[in-house]
Amino acid sequence: MNISLRKINAIFILKLQLFLGNLSLLMIPAMAIGYVVIFKNFFPANTVAFKALTLNMGILLNIIMGGIMFGAYPIAEEKEHHTLGVLMTSSINATEYFIGSLLPALLILTITNIILVPLNGTSWNQVSIINYLIITVICSIISILIGFTLGLFSKNQTNAGVVSLLPAAIFTLVPLFKGFSNKISHTSDFLYSGVIPRFINQSLFKHSYSWSLFEVSVLIAWFIIFSIVLFYAYRYKHFD
Amino acid sequence: MTNNPIIEVKQLYKSFGNEPALNNLDFSVEKGEIFGFLGPSGAGKTTTIKILTGQLNQDSGSATVLGSNSQHFKENIYEHIGVVTHDSGLYENLLAYNNLVTFARIFNSDKKSIDPLLKRVGLYNDRNKLVKKFSQGMKQRLILARAILNRPEILFLDEPTNGIDPGTTKEIHKLIFELRDSGTTIFLTTHNMTEATKLCDRVALLNDGKIAEIGSPQDLSLKYNKKIQFKVLLKDNESLKLNDSEETRGKINWWLENGELQTIHSCEPTLEDVFLQVTGRKLK
Ligand SMILES: Nc1ncnc2c1ncn2[C@@H]1O[C@H](COP(=O)(O)OP(=O)(O)OP(=O)(O)O)[C@@H](O)[C@H]1O
Ligand SMILES: [Mg+2]
Questions:
Q1: Known CDD domains for this protein (chain B) (predicted)?
Q2: Contacts of A229 (CB under 8 A, 6+ apart)
């Protein structure tokens, strides 16, 4: 399969234009930012635990809810307006389409992730920016892949919003509530989104973070599984 | 005509369930002609276009377009093909202009060609409107503009004027002729026999997934012109329909010489009549 950078770029600009005109999508990163800002300024309980909780909440909202919606909505929009078939009969192949759609979403989510840290009053001395970027980018990509798959199974944008809610809620809430019970904590360990609070908590509480082989495997497994799921979903769903 | 067809279809068969939608079609389209598929609803027109453009696979037989088997198209063949079907959509939340710019980027075509193209389809003054504010006819013209942005060698049009007002229809017909004159091959479908007669260099009459007849509209009318008739209008406003015979010719000559004749027409069958004769079925 040939991959043309020019065609990826064309899809990139197209999707960026559509994202910047879609207020309901932009609401999600805006909410993540708003949440962190409000909790920093109106509840100035300056404990580390409180800071970690708000930062985790902001990042998870942005990456999980945002990532899944930024994946699902645009594909549902293409299906609703019958434009996916037009791209495919205009010499765009699936790889170009998905990379071109993924990158602008990743750009918006990553910019948001980067500004969440200072807005939360956390210093980059406490959080390794390299590790932060690696973890948030990988988790965002997995969310977007899940979103793509859900989008392929949706009839229209409203439908995409509905089917995305449950998975988005699970991947956001389970890691947040992992302190509540061992069972939740154990489940969280196996979710890709569980890596985020562990990284933030270790960075803020213990001032250091080291990768574990288990975490790396969890991330790789989710990435591979959803790449394969997306591949098959696309093969069977894209022209109906 | 050359014997180097740009589209070649052999024994094309496709069924949905038990009923065949296409029942062993054979035809070919020559470079530079306007080729029409004329047939009633359900005849298999859209199915044929979908197969020819690689969006649907047949059960058996083959379709070759620009030398490539339609079941194994590589993406770049679409750089030489334009496709307009019922489900060709537009980015409703983008400006009309940005819709075209997106495809200019994809095809690497010159952005300077967009404005003249918008003028050609009468949308230049609306170029900075969101497509969701467009009427159906405006959308159809924008879809057409997008399909010819890459100067395709073949343009596939599935009922290009269905549901379009007469003014827009006329403009679209003009555009189709201009494209043909600039060397584009056009494969179109229609259930409108006037449109087929006016536009097509050759038509295939499609009925129940089979080609009933194929040829130029004129050749088909003449071929099925079994009973030659004339319709005359005389000076005293008397209107007559006469079968061709020694006697009729004598009368017509006499009227001509004595200035009695207001109008005279030959009554060869329309494509609609031919269709009815060949298939025993009306077009609509
Ligand atoms: N996806 C499908 N599933 C089942 N049957 C189908 C499908 N697509 C087409 N058919 C059937 O195949 C036959 C041909 O359909 P097709 O859409 O090609 O007709 P058409 O000539 O384009 O008609 P129209 O003028 O109404 O557009 C019809 O009997 C139709 O019911
Ligand atoms: Mg049709």
A1: ABC_DR_subfamily_A
A2: A145, A149
